[in-house]
Amino acid sequence: MRPTINLKLPQAIVLFLNGRIVRVDPLTGQTLWLTRVPGRFAPGYSTISIDGDMVLVGTNGHLIALDIEDGRVLWVNELKGLGYGLVNVVTDRGTIDNGSVVAAECASSSS
């Protein structure tokens, strides 16, 4: 049995850096859109999740939803009264629905 790795190209690469959320083309590495996070956010840790046509970003005690196609801010939840730590973002869709999962498959060769 010889393991093979099936790498599916992600449909979206999104990152958070210095108060900006950036979508990068997975084929070329070029920036597709860049959105400044609304309000004042210190550079630091963030959590990003893609759920359908939304990018959800948790940072500095806030939750931000953006449109995946153009980076437009859809809404911001300041999570008042909960503090300013790292926000973990999970959706009920899991992480497989957007085709960006790296899957390892074992294939057996017949002799």
Shape: globular
CATH architecture descriptor name: Beta Barrel
Helix content: under 10%
Rg: 17 Å
List how many beta strands DSSP finds.
Answer: 9
Tell me the number of helical segments per DSSP (H or I, 4 or more residues long): 0
Structurally, the number of domains stands at 1
CATH topology: Thrombin, subunit H
The structure class reads: mainly beta
Low-confidence parts: 95-111
Task: Give an overview in words.
The structure is a single chain. By secondary structure, this protein is mainly β. The protein has one domain (2-107): Thrombin, subunit H (Beta Barrel), CATH 2.40.10.480. Helix content is 0%, strand content 46%. It is built from no helices and 9 strands. It has a 4-stranded antiparallel sheet with strand order 5-6-7-8, with no helix packed on it. A 3-stranded antiparallel sheet has the order 2-3-4, with no helix packed on it. It is globular, with a radius of gyration of 17 Å.
Summarize the structure.
With 111 residues, the chain is an all-beta fold. The protein is built from no helices and 9 strands.
List the helices and strands and how they pair.
Elements: E1 2-7, E2 13-17, E3 20-24, E4 31-36, E5 46-51, E6 54-59, E7 62-67, E8 73-77, E9 102-107
Antiparallel strand pairs: 1-9, 2-3, 3-4, 5-6, 6-7, 7-8
Defining traits:
4-stranded antiparallel beta sheet; 3-stranded antiparallel beta sheet; 9 strands; single chain; mainly beta; Thrombin, subunit H; 111 residues
